[in-house]
């Protein structure tokens, strides 16, 4: 009895081992044709020197022949599944580029992109295993367009230690400004602090004694707004009269918080929450309260605002990009290109107009710029290219917004906003673009 | 009960029988020893996670399998172990495994607190109390975000040199052996701890104390009249079970280096219970088998499926569980036992001659 049962259990374990064995081995070819290379960028001023910063540097992992493997992690299910549209846009960009022969690189070749997607449901507890799988098993060259602040934070040390690029983070947390410590990360969005600063600058202009009621998401994303607003109103007559935190994972709505804020006597309402909670918040604003409402840029898409039950009329936003749903922007060549090529790559009309897929399209385009500007097809070279952009642009960034980076001195690509107001489903410019080149980190509060 | 008898029996068996008995264990240990060299580091870290789950399930098994008290709250105890470890290391600079010991002690007392109602209520009602603990725990983590980091997570860090300056960096278990990567070192360290805990549990169950656990489970009144202090046994078993779950949680914290409330929801409690039931309650090795099954399911098999199917993992797991319970109500170990019994009776031997099989 006993011995036989032991045998069976051993056989079972052996079975598991075999099943597991099918999933790849430590020293097998899972990491593609990775080779250890020396510094990707030979110029002395290169921001990243892998020879100095990386142990076991695999600069060309994921590059095989004329194919580059890229990974991305996003919420395909769960309450943040709306952001899956970002990934649809990213995928469309690569599809479109592949159909056109591939992404051009400095070596004269054109690279086909193979995109591997993982679903972490916006849960930072799930992200690390998926990202490690992408890097160690799927052997990707880089991650592009990963969604979420906490999710990206949960793998920041891992990716930086292993010298794996994480390009165009779909988050504007002020943490990504620490390029000195984490040079393998570069955000694809403007810093939330720069955005908050743009709101306050505009308020100073139009309502210098504004009384702000702030609803913020009680995580790094919302706290970035809160801290930056507190810093920006220092020394002004603007006051923060009420604030409410909102926990997106608690399963409740913002209704109670909005009711509370509406009784605070504030004349300005800043909505620092994302996901579908943001437009729903607008729909909760009682008819008796008519503040000047500022919404997060993550909420400014047609898709999101269509959930506001008509209460999006009159809201303000700081806008860095073109809006494919805005008639005023639709003739812009960048929008035309996105609309025609995106459609050819399988995006439907609602995705194109929705304003979320276009963000992902921009992330793909940001990677393409990095690859094109890089001296060689190498991880460090691509990062160095992205950290030394000169009068560049990508995706649907507004033409007036300047795109420059300079390593840790200026780690943010997008730092310009214009202030717009929503009128009948379109945006009306209230203040032109102000570019805050190199200043984004200084806006971050504590 | 039959432990001494079977030892006598095995002493009488020939060397061939002995080899058959010991051989599979040697094979098992060879496999376990080779495993971390065959897989990329993220997979080895998952193995470490499975071990932490196995430890927690081993703790729950003492309580549910041997003592007959149902707990659906062991995910919370696991979480308390993890957060205690994280906070002690990050805030107070406690050495890594010192924090594990502290976590076990904290969980022991929390377990006793949770177990107090068990003196008055039983079965489903006790399950409901523990369910409340499991449901409340992640909410408490959010509520006390100043200490726990809330939904933003708790980064377990210690001051380390990085890029020329002292920074708070994620903790790591540095391998002291050249040629052994950090994750491999962690694997063997965790394996050793897991084996020790399982062996100690086995010894406990085979001892007088273990027999009193089982006696309380089988018939409280009979146990009481044979002189077993029933209340004391029930309470201490709850505490011990919680402490073991806490050790599992503590190792989980050391494995991950960061903690999020979403890891410690009611779902985790259910998975720990699933590990016990799948493996086979009231067998020592059962929870480990169950934990490996669960790990294989959620980290390997589901991950290979298309993205669209993945959100349905709970449904798939549910269906598999129903099937398993229909086919083998005693879990994997129970199924193996009944197969053996069938086999033995067909051969004409006496079936189930070793009913208290530890395996």
Automatic annotation (TrEMBL), chain A:
Note the CDD domains from the entry: PBP1_ABC_ligand_binding-like (cd06343)
What UniProt keywords are attached to this protein's entry?
A: Signal
Identify this protein by name: Unannotated protein
Q: Which SUPFAM superfamilies does this one have?
A: Periplasmic binding protein-like I
Give the originating organism.
freshwater metagenome
Which taxonomic lineage is given here? unclassified sequences, metagenomes, ecological metagenomes
Domain named Leucine-binding protein is located at 67-394
Q: Which Pfam families match?
A: Peripla_BP_6
Automatic annotation (TrEMBL), chain B:
Transmembrane segment boundaries? 18-38, 44-63, 70-90, 96-116, 123-141, 187-205, 235-254, 266-294, 314-336
| Compartment list | Cell membrane
Q: Which Pfam families match?
A: BPD_transp_2
The UniProt record lists the keyword Membrane: yes
Is the keyword Transmembrane helix assigned to this protein?
A: yes
Q: Which GO terms describe its cellular component?
A: plasma membrane
Q: Which CDD domains match?
A: TM_PBP1_LivM_like
Instruction: Please name the PANTHER family in this protein's record.
Output: HIGH-AFFINITY BRANCHED-CHAIN AMINO ACID TRANSPORT PROTEIN BRAE, HIGH-AFFINITY BRANCHED-CHAIN AMINO ACID TRANSPORT SYSTEM PERMEASE
Protein name per UniProt: Unannotated protein
This chain's source organism reads: freshwater metagenome
